[in-house]
Design goal:
The structure holds two protein chains of two kinds. Chain A is of the alpha/beta class. Chain A contains eleven helices and ten strands. Helix content of chain A is about 45%, strand content about 25%. In chain A, the strands form three sheets. Chain A has a six-stranded mixed β-sheet with strand order 5-4-3-6-7-10, sandwiched between helices. Chain A has a two-stranded antiparallel sheet with strand order 1-2. Chain A has a two-stranded antiparallel sheet with strand order 8-9. Classes of the chains: A alpha/beta, B alpha/beta. At the A-B interface, helix 9, strand 8, strand 9 and helix 10 of A face strand 2, helix 2 and helix 14 of B. Strand 8 of chain A pairs parallel with strand 2 of chain B.
Chain lengths: ~300, ~675
């Protein structure tokens, strides 16, 4: 998506980059975004239907069950149970490939902001949020918590990330899946530049433990378009491997390979009931979150 | 194809520029950090090879374009030779042997003259031309084509057979050190005998182009007199006639010696037969003729000069009175009219030897080097030398004295070994009955010799010459060898009674007479056209009178030995003035008999004579067309320009097409937007 096609009033990631703290970024994004959202969507994450009880004065008429009233001529209101036991684990890929950018924002930065926004959103709903930083191993792990103090702790960890290494998601995902006992929401933020089948296997492992899994694949626009021109010596940011080539000559084959790679993830995620969303670093966070939550509200 | 401005061709080195730039560009590729090479590797596997082909195709086209541009600037013209290059050297090797006059007015020689003039008109200036004739004459490189034309136009065929090898060698020398285009035109009838064994020598700076202009004819009707052999012992002359034809020939042979005698002869194809005539009693010029009109007339005649007894002068140099006495007595008995002079062997070097028919050396002992040199010159000029070795001869000295070190030639027929003394007198066991010395004796040769026995003889260790007589133990007694046109006869014993009883036998004066007569006649000056006639040393004036009566005089200087080369067959009169005394000599000059063989060598064998050169054989009647084709210059610049434009457009088109293809791929499938840009 280019700037012209983006809805007006949304938050440009390039502008967000000028904000000094993650808290402020998260607050700006989530508050501004929530204020524009419908309530039902807002509650989509953590409110669960519990049953009916008889209407008493002072109850919110919005929860009156008109269908039951029509059938029985009695007034009942729907009772919701707040899911206080829902825990969320945000898995952020901090490997070196995430450092790539063709503009001003790296995939890693985008991922950090995304993680910060989601944490803010969750904690503001009283949900517990934990953070796992990973590349070829688990670099840092913060257990879920739902307090504001925990949020600040979490954001401070995101602000001081360790330097990542090579990507090896599959093995790490299996290890995490084995460690998380209680049913949780797993959010993976990564470029997924690893063996797709192995990564999917890792994610399926979460599903076997009845976790709900959401995958945010962060990519740079240049990684998709490969719109370079000239003869370059391409250097792999993770392994340091070099390869000479004419970018124009390689572009068509590159794009085909990338499309095939993305399609594969999309299909496999769909087949394994894994929510999958792809974000390009140019896409505004609020827009991305809105799109995703809208989609989720309709599907859950 | 040649170029008007060949200096531009140096720029061809720049044709490699696109390749160089290509690799330089690759080497200087900027490092580009990228998140993953996974998809690039897949892309390279699928599209890399095709891209490589496209890349090299465009590169190849660019190289061709640069080369064409350089060729265009160099001014291409389609011309094999003809003077567009800065340096062009052309040598004409001309076979001017007598065989080219075959056919009279319609001879190959006339064809050669026309062809030579055609060639000169076809060559374009600036060009250097040289000429080398097989007869030995030559014209050094000149830019004056008129001068060369005049030589070709006025030159007459030579009666001398000459040497093709020498002419080619001369051409090589002329071209040696020259740069630029080098061409040799060889004009010849390619006679088998003349070209047999010819091998073109290598040149120092690459082989020149060689164009062989074939002047030979398919018709070869010719027969001739090979030679006339005198058989004085039999008082006969033997006239040998050769038929070069592929069919039988019947003709009359005429022998003019005072009176004319004719005999019919029939010869099978390529056969030689002899006709015998009586040897005239009177001395003088004898002429034999084959009365038949054929392609070559000069080889139908043969001249021989029979010397008179008065002209027969002998010189005897003896180291001992005893042995010399027996030779003197035999010669005085056999040649009562001959002049016999005596000289001490040590004074032989100061003696002028050429006036003597035969020089006898008897038990002479050691010789000064100047004596040997004088004798060698004498032999070279047709002198006859009879040597009896004796007590005074020491084998090592003998073998050393007679060795011409400069020429690496041993003058004697054999080297001497030690004296072999027989326990009982040895006899002759073998003799060459066909040799002229013994031919009159025929099969009774050994009967004559059986009363002759030997007490001792020199053992001849290394025999180079022909053995004529052998004793027991296979020891050579009499040997003969040739040096120059002269003969050396060596007796392995002296006419001394302590060595042999030969001087006392009645057979001895007869033997000496036959040997004397044979050698005296053999010393009759018969020469070939082109062979030099040498004057005696210290001759002040040499006068030669040709068979046509033309008179030529040469004046000698101190230390120089005068020589004259007769250029026509026939009887030549020579007079030599030396210290106020004039001596005369009649020399019969004949054509080389092999010149009459007009059969041609096969083209494959002709090519084999030039193993390391590019050879083109052109029949003389096709020379004009060949020269026209090779020398006509067509400007090829427009063709090169058109080619250049076509290839340039092709290169631009292909480049754009490949670029469009790439961008089309790029546009058609953007995975970000899914839309075309």
């Amino acid at each position: 998506m280019n700037a012209q096609q983006r809805p007006s009033g949304l938050l440009d990631p390039r502008v967000m980059g000028k904000f000094s703290g993650l808290y402020l970024v998260a607050k700006t994004v989530v508050e501004g975004f929530i204020s524009g959202l419908h309530k039902s969507l807002y509650r989509g994450f953590s409110i669960e239907f519990a049953g009916h009880r008889e209407y008493t004065a002072g109850d919110d008429l919005r929860y009156l069950d008109w269908k039951v009233f029509g059938r029985t001529d009695r007034t009942y209101v729907r009772v919701f149970r707040e899911e206080t036991n829902v825990k969320t684990h945000i898995l952020l890929d901090i490997s070196r490939s995430m450092e790539y950018t063709s503009g001003s924002i790296t995939k890693k930065q985008y991922g950090i902001w995304l993680a910060a926004c989601l944490s803010y959103l969750m904690i503001s709903q009283k949900d517990a949020v934990g953070l796992i930083l990973l590349d070829s191993d688990i670099r840092r792990q913060i257990k879920p918590g739902s307090t504001t103090v925990h949020l600040h702790h979490l954001l401070s960890q995101l602000e001081n990330l360790p330097l990542g290494k090579t990507t090896s998601l599959a093995a790490v995902l299996h290890r995490i899946a084995l460690n998380i006992k209680r049913r949780s929401l797993i959010i993976l933020i990564s470029d997924l530049f690893d063996e797709p089948d192995k990564v999917i296997n890792g994610l399926v492992h979460f599903r076997h433990h009845h976790h709900e899994v959401i995958v945010f694949q962060i990519l740079d626009a240049a990684e998709l378009d490969f719109s370079f021109s000239g003869h370059f010596q391409f250097v792999d940011m993770e392994s340091g491997e070099k390869m000479d080539g004419d970018s124009l000559a390689l572009s068509a084959g590159y794009r085909q390979a990338v499309q095939s790679f993305l399609r594969h993830y999309q299909r496999q995620c769909s087949a394994n009931n894994i929510s999958y969303a792809r974000a390009v670093t140019e896409t505004p966070f609020d827009y991305f979150l809105y799109q995703y939550l809208n989609l989720r509200a309709r599907t859950v | 194809m040649t170029f008007l401005q060949p200096v531009f061709l140096w720029a061809l080195a720049g044709a490699g520029l696109p390749v160089l730039l290509h690799f330089l560009a690759k080497r200087k590729a900027k490092p580009f950090p990228f998140s993953t090479l996974r998809f690039l590797k897949i892309s390279r596997q699928t599209t890399g090879r095709l891209r490589l082909v496209e890349e090299w195709l465009v590169l190849f086209l660019r190289i061709i374009i640069i080369m064409l541009l350089i060729f265009f600037l160099a001014g291409p013209v389609s011309q094999r030779f003809g003077g567009f290059l800065q340096e062009q050297s052309v040598v004409l090797v001309i076979d001017d042997s007598y065989s080219l006059s075959a056919g009279g007015n319609d001879s190959p020689w006339h064809d050669l003259q026309s062809a030579g003039l055609q060639l000169f008109s076809a060559l374009r200036k600036p060009v250097r031309v040289a000429i080398a004739f097989s007869s030995g004459k030559s014209l050094p490189f000149t830019q004056d084509l008129k001068e060369a034309e005049t030589i070709i136009r006025t030159k007459e065929v030579s009666f001398a057979s000459g040497s093709i090898q020498a002419a080619l060698e001369q051409a090589r020398k002329l071209l040696s050190g020259r740069s630029g285009e080098k061409i040799i035109f060889v004009f010849s009838d390619f006679q088998s005998y003349a070209w047999d064994g010819v091998s073109f020598p290598e040149t120092d700076r690459g082989s020149p182009r060689i164009v062989l202009v074939d002047l030979g004819r398919t018709w070869t009707d010719n027969a001739g007199i090979k030679k006339v052999v005198l058989l004085p012992a039999e008082r006969m002359c033997q006239c040998q006639v050769v038929n070069w034809n592929g069919h039988q020939v019947t003709a009359e042979v005429e022998f003019q010696a005072g009176q004319t005698e004719r005999k019919m002869i029939t010869l099978l194809p390529r056969e030689t037969q002899s006709v015998q005539f009586k040897l005239p009693r009177t001395a003088g010029l004898v002429k034999a003729r084959l009365l038949r009109s054929d392609l070559l007339s000069a080889d139908n005649e043969f001249f021989i000069n029979i010397p008179s007894a008065e002209e027969t002068n002998f010189l005897l140099a003896s180291g001992s009175a005893e042995t010399g006495r027996y030779v003197r007595l035999a010669l005085e008995a056999s040649f009562p009219q001959a002049k016999l002079e005596f000289v001490h062997p040590q004074e032989l070097g100061q003696k002028a030897l050429l006036p003597y028919r035969i020089v006898f050396l008897v038990n002479a002992g050691r010789h000064q080097p100047e004596t040997i040199r004088s004798l060698a010159h004498y032999l070279q000029q047709g002198g006859q030398l009879v040597v009896f070795v004796g007590d005074k001869d020491v084998p090592d000295n003998f073998n050393s004295d007679w060795q011409l070190r400069a020429e690496k030639v041993f003058l004697m027929p054999a080297r001497l070994g030690q004296v072999v003394k027989f326990a009982r007198p040895a006899t002759v066991l073998w003799g060459d009955k066909h040799h002229p010395f013994f031919a009159p004796l025929g099969d009774g040769l050994l009967e004559y010799w059986k009363t002759v026995y030997f007490h001792q003889v020199f053992q001849c260790s290394v025999v180079d010459g022909q053995v004529l007589l052998k004793s027991e133990r296979d020891l050579p007694l009499l040997m003969e060898s040739r040096y120059g046109t002269g003969t050396v006869v060596l007796f392995a014993f002296p006419p001394d009674l302590t060595w042999t009883n030969l001087p006392k036998r009645p057979f001895y004066p007869v033997l000496m007479e036959v040997i004397g007569q044979t050698l005296a006649i053999a010393s009759s000056p018969i020469s070939l056209v082109g062979q030099p006639i040498w004057a005696p040393p210290e001759t002040e004036f040499l006068t030669a009178v040709s068979p046509d009566g033309e008179k030529m005089t040469l004046q000698g200087s101190r230390g120089e030995i005068l020589k004259f080369i007769p250029e026509k067959p026939g009887a030549w009169q020579f007079s030599f003035v030396r210290q106020g005394v004039t001596t005369f000599r009649l020399v019969a000059v004949n054509l080389d008999w092999q010149e009459g063989d007009l059969s041609k060598m096969e083209p494959t064998r002709i090519r084999a004579c030039f193993p390391k050169a590019a050879v083109k054989i052109v029949p003389v009647n096709q020379l004009a067309r060949y020269l026209k084709r090779e020398t006509s210059a067509t400007d090829l610049s427009p063709i090169f320009l058109i080619l250049l434009l076509i290839l340039y457009l092709l290169q631009v088109g292909l480049g754009n097409f490949f670029h469009w293809k790439k961008t089309e791929r790029q546009v058609s499938s953007s995975p970000v937007t899914g839309e075309k840009k």
